[in-house]
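question for whoever is on the cluster today: can someone run the full assembly for these? two chains, 428 residues total. i dont have access anymore since they changed the login thing
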Amino acid sequence: MRLAQLSERSGVSAATIKYYLREGLLPPGRQVNATTAEYDEEHLRRLRLVRAMIHVGRIPVATVREVLGHVDDGSLGRTIRVGAALWALPQVPEPDDEDEFVQSAHREVGTLLDVLGWENAKQLTTISPAYRQLVVAVAAFRRLGYDWDTELLVSHAKLMHQAAITDLDFLETHPSEEEKVEVAVASAVLVEPMLQALHRLAQEEETARRYGFE
Amino acid sequence: MRLAQLSERSGVSAATIKYYLREGLLPPGRQVNATTAEYDEEHLRRLRLVRAMIHVGRIPVATVREVLGHVDDGSLGRTIRVGAALWALPQVPEPDDEDEFVQSAHREVGTLLDVLGWENAKQLTTISPAYRQLVVAVAAFRRLGYDWDTELLVSHAKLMHQAAITDLDFLETHPSEEEKVEVAVASAVLVEPMLQALHRLAQEEETARRYGFE
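^ ran it for u. tokens below:
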């Protein structure tokens, strides 16, 4: 398809597509003559992913380029390709490992991973930003003196594991390896705000069920 | 307790506590003489909530003051007090109701609420920011051409409902009405980053289980 059609099918303006091409977020089309290039379904898919990251995830262009570099690195296995792409997404502040609450949160999350039997996650603790984000969140709870017990953490972790299984099952329905990796990254960006909204809505529903509107 | 002790027990510096007092985020202590005031457990609890909102939730001081106004409004029922407090938290951009994807997302979320039997949430669609956030998230998915089916949405909603039930059960363990409302608001701020981290970690675990590290 031509640029105009790519624009029409994606809902992204021609000027924005040209900007993405210049910034290297979209691979160049196949040049058919001096002024015309031909684009295909792969361009359309990539354009969706770029839109998801920039418009929904509000991720800076330089970070998007970095994420796409990992997505396209066929020399890596899928876990690492998806992982590296997710790890390039915006992250929360790093935990301060000198802090006593952070130190005890490391231990608490370690116990959690043991209880859950998340052997792979345990191997990734030194490199995974998700692990560090969890340590920061647990330390915040404890520092504020909330006595949330580890059982609650285990219960929430199991729910999130179920959500991840559902997401990955959906991923499997995409035919090519490239699509699987791309959809994994787009889902991370798109599913998180959805889960957050569903959680807030569920809290409203359950609060009203228990206490009514009076 | 005196200010120094409140500072020690909360881990918040005396200067910061004085700032919160000036800003009206913390009620004044009971004046025992011209230069000394006495603080109690209620001040400690309120200080935790303020810290959760400002430090973990990164919520502006003016918004914190607004949220606390709702938390303290005993004339409202608990559902509305908690709801009003949560609704004052930072929100995602509003949906553009002229947009065709937003219009179809309204219908899709309507169907979702019917399927789930969330009768209370259905009554809140005109005022709930969580509902609007969900509409925005669903519209983003559809606009990008992802064919996530409604069943997946239902499955994630059920998981989030389970998380909300767990959170509210925990809430019930707090004795007073004031504490219940305060902990509900603090949990919203603290649980969201935790769920997000658990979701990302679960994705890593499940991806590695399925595809290994090669």
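summary bc i know u wont read the tokens: Chain B touches chain A through 83 residues (CB under 8 Å). Chain B has two domains: 3-87, 100-211.
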